[in-house]
Prior knowledge:
By secondary structure, this protein is an alpha+beta fold. 26% of the residues lie in helices and 32% in strands. The protein contains 4 helices and 11 strands. It is globular and about 65 Å long.
Amino acid sequence: SEDEWWKAFARIRPGFVYTYAAYLHFKAAGYSPRCADMYGADLALYESSKTKNRHVKWHRHSKFLVLVVHVREDESVWHHEQLFSWLQLHGIQRLAHQVRKELVLCYVSQQKSDGASGEHEFVRAMSVKPVVLRRWVPPVSYTHLTLPTKRIVDKSVGAGKLKNKRN
């Protein structure tokens, strides 16, 4: 039955219900969401473009990685049934930058709905808020700046040997 399938998926993948809600959100927005376990994220989003004969052509490379997090009633943020940390976010963001993808942090929270019968209505009643995270890169390169150095004679090493010393 349908309930048995939902329970089996939830046992196999913690947070399946929240990932599925994000999947439905991005599918409705015109993306093709796929599994992104190889990147350490939950979903990879592929964009589509329509050709002249109205066939949908999916791009070969995804532009976005989606990390689905669940916001609980006490406003704590969870990922795969574990408390989410900034260290995890930093690691995934660095990996997304290295593979030239943008990271989307997708907040999924449960809205209070009366009379939700079945898992599908439960998922559709969730609030999904995607936020694109970008790394800040300073516009000015500071690599040309160096600290002033002064050359002095170091008598402890031996006569005539020079040593750089910072002021």
